[in-house]
User: Which sequence fits this backbone?
């Protein structure tokens, strides 16, 4: 007779149901696990045998075969210990067969039978609820899994507690959802002296979820400004919080089962590898861009990242999802994040400071920014050059808006977008606009369209750059509380798009600067251009 238990295997952020079959047959005593188990799953037989022996439960002198069905799907993880143990306990008559078949279980067993926490309890609870089964997991994973609506979850400390629960000796109470994590505050916007243009650009970027690139001399406040962005974002909706928490659960980052309504903020060091950022490894785990889903990915010293890392970001920035393909796993993860990158203008950092610039100006800036390709630069919606702050301004009192004031304006603008795109599930912010929807809601008035057309022709904007100006203009109009995108909104959006014209051709920055102010065929006669 075949005895069954159920568990899950993870494919991306989804948990796929696995049937654990156990059979006892005549023959030489042995314990084998089949169904494409990896090393961790194969070693479960020793952990299960030791856990049962610690409770004085002897295995029968028969051939024990455990099959993990479907057998052609690779199995990975120590969470198979508990379902294998339950199927075996049902086979030897310790627990009832029907109780075992009506549960989904996951958990690693210690040699003394204690249950060790594992990753992925939240998506496992979703799969269990969909099949109307009880989920059994370690106690530490219970608060995480209990967040799923209509899920029946119990958390046990040991295998012995589960046996007592199934036999009615000591029922285990249902797990309770964990606490909502306390938001982390990284400082107030009013702490930054000066940099009003940078603050305005940050407000626009956060309101529309646009990608932002900050360039300035060392110590001008780029990183401070970027870290204040977290305090401007509105709380996640319940659906967004669940999406983000599922990715964190797969990665094993949900602490004490708490779910956070605060958008994630992932700050990367420039030595971070491509696999860590995009995702990968032997079992195709999510990377930093997926952990930043519905939040912010902050990349300080952007040109210092390796070229392969920067180029690997291009597709996820456009598609808002990434497929991690490996020989044994193919997983797709959502990565709808806002990218904030910072950089010095050159290697020494003082290209834009006349009092401290090096003797290699402007070639040093072109060589340094040459690490960033043109297609990558084209994906930034807003680019801001931040000047150095004089030391005598640092003692002045702060008279700018606080983070709470700016966050209120951002929340209002984002509510406008939420109402506008309520019937479009694939749209959450202005940064997601494309195609007919972009034309419908972001087309400016006649003077604004004329200005945009003139700028696109003069500065040779790409199609992507043209559309990004429209998106930013739509966000600026939303912050102003107006329905029609006007010329002033397009003008401000263009000012952020054309902030660093010398970065459009990193091979010869001096030539590019001069060509921005001359007509084709007349490059030797500089002339001033007016966009009116």
Assistant:
């Amino acid at each position: 007779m075949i005895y069954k238990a159920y568990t899950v295997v993870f494919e991306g952020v989804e948990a796929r149901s696995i049937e654990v079959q156990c059979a006892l047959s005549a023959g030489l005593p042995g314990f084998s696990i089949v169904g494409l188990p990896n090393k961790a799953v194969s070693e479960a037989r020793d952990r299960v045998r030791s856990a049962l022996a610690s409770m004085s439960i002897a295995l029968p002198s028969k051939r024990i075969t455990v099959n993990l069905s479907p057998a052609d799907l690779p199995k990975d993880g120590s969470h198979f210990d508990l379902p294998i143990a339950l199927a075996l306990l049902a086979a030897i008559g310790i627990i009832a067969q029907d109780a075992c078949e009506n549960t989904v279980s996951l958990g690693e067993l210690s040699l003394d039978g204690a249950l060790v926490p594992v990753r992925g309890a939240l998506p496992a609870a979703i799969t269990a609820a969909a099949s109307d089964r009880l989920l059994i997991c370690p106690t530490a994973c219970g608060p995480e899994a209990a967040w799923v609506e209509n899920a029946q979850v119990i958390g046990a400390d040991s295998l012995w507690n589960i046996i007592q629960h199934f036999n009615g000796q000591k029922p285990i109470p249902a797990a309770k959802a964990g606490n909502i994590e306390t938001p982390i505050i990284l400082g107030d916007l009013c702490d930054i002296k000066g940099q009003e243009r940078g603050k305005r650009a940050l407000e626009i970027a956060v309101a529309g979820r646009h990608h932002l690139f900050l360039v300035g001399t060392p110590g001008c406040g780029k990183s401070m400004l970027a870290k204040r962005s977290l305090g401007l974002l509105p709380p996640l909706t319940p659906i967004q919080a669940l999406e983000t928490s599922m990715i964190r659960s797969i990665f094993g980052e949900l602490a004490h089962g708490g779910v956070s309504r605060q958008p994630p903020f992932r700050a990367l060091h420039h030595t971070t590898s491509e696999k860590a950022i995009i995702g990968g490894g032997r079992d195709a785990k999510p990377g930093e861009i997926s952990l930043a889903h519905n939040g912010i990915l902050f990349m300080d010293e952007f040109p210092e990242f390796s070229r392969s890392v920067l180029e690997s970001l291009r597709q996820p920035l456009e598609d808002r999802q990434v497929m991690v393909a490996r020989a044994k796993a193919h997983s797709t993860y959502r990565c709808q994040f806002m990218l904030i990158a910072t950089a010095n203008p050159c290697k020494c950092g003082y290209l834009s400071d006349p009092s401290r610039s090096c003797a290699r100006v402007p070639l040093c800036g072109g060589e340094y920014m040459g690490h960033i390709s043109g297609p990558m630069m084209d994906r930034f919606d807003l680019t801001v050059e931040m000047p150095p702050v004089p030391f005598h301004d640092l003692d002045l009192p702060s008279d700018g808006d606080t983070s709470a004031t700016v966050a209120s304006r951002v929340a209002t603008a984002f509510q406008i977008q939420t109402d506008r795109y309520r019937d479009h599930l694939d749209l959450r912010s202005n940064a997601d606009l494309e195609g007919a929807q972009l034309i419908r809601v972001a087309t400016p008035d006649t003077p604004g369209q004329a200005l945009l057309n003139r700028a696109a022709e003069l500065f040779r904007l790409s199609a992507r750059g043209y559309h990004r100006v429209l998106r930013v203009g739509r966000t600026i109009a939303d912050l102003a509380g107006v329905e029609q995108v006007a010329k002033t909104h397009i003008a401000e959006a263009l000012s952020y798009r054309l902030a660093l014209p010398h970065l459009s051709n990193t091979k010869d920055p001096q030539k590019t600067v001069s060509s921005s102010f001359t007509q084709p065929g007349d490059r030797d006669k500089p002339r001033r251009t007016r966009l009116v």
DSSP finds 22 helices and 18 strands in the chain.
